[in-house]
Amino acid sequence: MGFLGFGGRRRAASSSHSSTAGAASPPPPRDPTPEEALALLKAGNEAFVNGRSQLGHVTADDLAGLQDGQKPFAVIVGCADSRTPPTILFNQGLGRLFIVRVAGNTVDRRGLASIVYAVRNLGCPLVVVMGHTGCGAVAAAEAVVDGKTELDPSLEEMIVPIIPAVLTARRTRRNDIAVAAVEENARRVAAKLHTSDTSLQQAVDEGRLMIVACVKELHSGRVRFLD
Ligand SMILES: [Zn+2]
Fold first, then answer.
1. Which residues surround ligand 1, an ion (CB under 5 A)?
2. Are 166 and 145 in contact (CB under 8 A)?
3. How far is the CA of 118 from the centre of ligand 1 (A)?
4. pLDDT value at position 26?
5. 82, 125, 188, 210 — which has fewest CB within 10 A?
6. DSSP-derived 3-state class of residue 92
7. Is the pLDDT of residue 4 over 60?
8. Among the listed ranges 52-56, 158-162, 165-169, 201-205, which one has the minimum average pLDDT value?
9. Ligand 1 center to residue 135 CA distance, Å?
10. What's the CA-to-centroid distance between 79 and ligand 1, angstroms?
11. How much is the mean pLDDT over the chain?
12. Taking Cα atoms as reference points, which of 99, 15, 9, 128 lies closest to residue 58?
């Protein structure tokens, strides 16, 4: 109910501001398939990149339709970087995205529990692991791998989980190794999620869940989904 109510509010808000704004992201269907959820994110990012974002119309009033619960259509595992807010990049307002952010977009046990909760208890059909070019956490892992710096104990929990991705990128790619490390890190985190919890694995096997990786281009804001 709150889910659909939110969509209605968004439509009403956009029509009253139609002279200054473009098309709103379409309201999510009640129970989107993984493919539909992915299409919503791609359309939302397209709107952001093309300057047709609608988040200027998201207000506290939009919370009224969400008081009975939430039904976000996607989990975003993102970097804490201030330039990568998923709600803005995907042009999605209140109640639509369930977001876990930590520098380097890796997932620890508590992050995993949050993702499982969103999939199992809230019915999220899509998990997206989003890296970004120019990621400081990945650069820090590269610096350690290259022997340019010692591993800072205070940053160990951020850096160490990224190191395997950096090593793989160095082994498999000759060009753009910084971008390759970012891509590999996102891919690796997404791949690990498939097997990190039986309920996620089961949801994927049954076609109720898709787990994908993507990279946000720092300059353009475009989100590129990886194979
Ligand atoms: Zn980052």
1. 79, 81, 135, 137
2. yes
3. 23
4. 63
5. 82
6. coil
7. no
8. 52-56
9. 4
10. 5
11. 89
12. 9
Q: How far is the CA of 67 from the centre of ligand 1 (A)?
A: 32
Tens digits of residue pLDDT in 195-207: 999 999 999 999 9
Q: How far, in Å, from the CA of 217 to the mean position of ligand 1?
A: 11
Residue 112 CA to ligand 1 centre (angstroms): 19
Contact 43, 25 (CB under 8 A): yes
Cα(52) to centroid of ligand 1, in Å? 25
Q: Say if residue 183's pLDDT is above 90.
A: yes
User: Which pLDDT does position 22 carry in this prediction?
Assistant: 46
When pLDDT is cut at 50, 70 and 90, the band that residue 65 belongs to is confident
With beta carbons less than 8 A apart as the criterion, state whether 138 and 84 touch: no
HEC sequence for 114-165? HHHHHHHHCCCCEEEEEEECCCHHHHHHHHHHCCCCCCCHHHHHHHHHHHHH
**CA 12 / ligand 1 centre spacing (Å):** 36
Minimum mean pLDDT range among 72-81, 168-177, 192-201: 168-177
Backbone angles phi, psi at 174, to 5 degrees: -100, -35
| Structural domains in the chain, sorted by start | 2-19+26-225 (3.40.1050.10)
pTM, two decimals, is 0.88
- CA–centroid distance, residue 153 to ligand 1 (Å): 19
